[in-house]
From TrEMBL:
GO BP, sorted A to Z: gluconeogenesis; glucose 6-phosphate metabolic process; glycolytic process
Pfam families to which the protein is assigned, alphabetical: PGI
Gene source species: Gossypium lobatum
Single Gene Ontology MF annotation: monosaccharide binding
Name this polypeptide is given: Glucose-6-phosphate isomerase
UniProt keywords, alphabetically: Gluconeogenesis, Glycolysis, Isomerase
Example of a GO cellular component annotation carried by this entry: cytosol
């Protein structure tokens, strides 16, 4: 993989545009999306062994290009939405809309020329192998989209090997960096990811407070079931009552909290407590 990545890295350093595959790919994205992410990127690799590649590209492109501000501090809300899966099967889920539905996308076909090792590609009918059918589906879909003025890009590799996968990864990583330069954003800064992690930490901290409140109420004699409002008040977090409801709903579904009255489908009816009193937590 590293050899393939190194070879692609060298190829994408060319200052001659037509000789730089990553620059050509980034310019295709810019043209297809008007430089503002106006269309989604649909990734269709026609090889089962590339099943996870479209999911990798979803993470790479959306995390790197989804930015609220550009390098000058202007609010631009940039990004390209990416989805897709195996072209061999998922084209049946997509092709009707891609050809005749809302034109809010461009397709990337990933074509693999070698089907299987010689002697291992069985004929389904005389003169037609499994690989031939796959080839026909790719080319037929590509032609059907083109006939209806739907844009597509085709990336072709000889075969799927560690070297070619490494080259594909390096190609798309460099293309993302070049596209980011074209639209004046920082592809290597992910404040949204950090915000999600911080928010998750705050939810877990709130859950600990909810558990402490419910434990204290469950250690009383008799046990004191609490409403959502009472839990929120004792947590000193009335503004977080919806999140407290979601926490309790999750705990109840996993047998970590008991519902004394009501049900989760009607939050205002709920009264909850813990199944047992944890004295160690109570006096910690």
């Amino acid at each position: 993989m590293l050899v393939g990545a190194s070879m692609m890295d060298n190829a994408t350093r060319s200052r001659v545009l037509k000789d730089n595959p990553a620059a050509l790919l980034a310019l295709c994205w810019y043209w297809a999306c008007d430089g503002v992410g106006s269309k989604d990127m649909v990734i269709l690799p026609y090889k089962d062994s590339l099943l996870l590649f479209s999911r990798y590209l979803q993470q790479l492109v959306m995390e790197s290009l989804g930015k609220e501000f550009d390098l000058d501090g202007n609010r631009v809300n940039q990004g390209i939405s990416v989805y897709g899966n195996k072209g061999s099967t998922d084209q049946h889920a997509y092709i009707q809309q891609l050809r005749e539905g809302v034109h809010n996308f461009f397709v990337t076909f990933i074509e693999v020329l070698r089907d299987r090792p010689p002697g291992h590609d069985w004929e389904l009918e005389p003169g037609v192998t499994c690989g031939d059918y796959l080839f026909g589906m790719l080319q037929g879909t590509r032609s059907a989209l083109y006939a209806n003025d739907r844009e597509s890009i085709t990336v072709t590799v000889q075969e799927v090997t560690p070297r070619s996968v490494g080259a594909l990864v390096a190609l798309y990583e460099r293309a993302v960096g070049l596209y980011a330069s074209l639209v004046n954003i920082n592809a290597y800064h992910q404040p949204g990811v950090e915000a999600g992690k911080k928010a998750a930490g705050e939810v877990l901290a709130l859950q600990k407070r909810v558990l402490a409140v419910l434990n204290e109420a469950s250690c009383k004699e008799p046990v004191e079931p609490l409403t959502l409002e009472e839990v929120a008040e004792r947590c000193h977090a009335p503004e977080d009552i919806e999140m407290i409801y979601k926490i309790i709903e999750h705990m109840a579904a996993n047998d970590r909290a008991l519902i004394a009255e009501g049900d989760c489908g009607s939050p205002n009816s709920l009264k909850v407590f813990l199944g047992e009193c944890n004295l160690d937590e109570l006096y910690a």
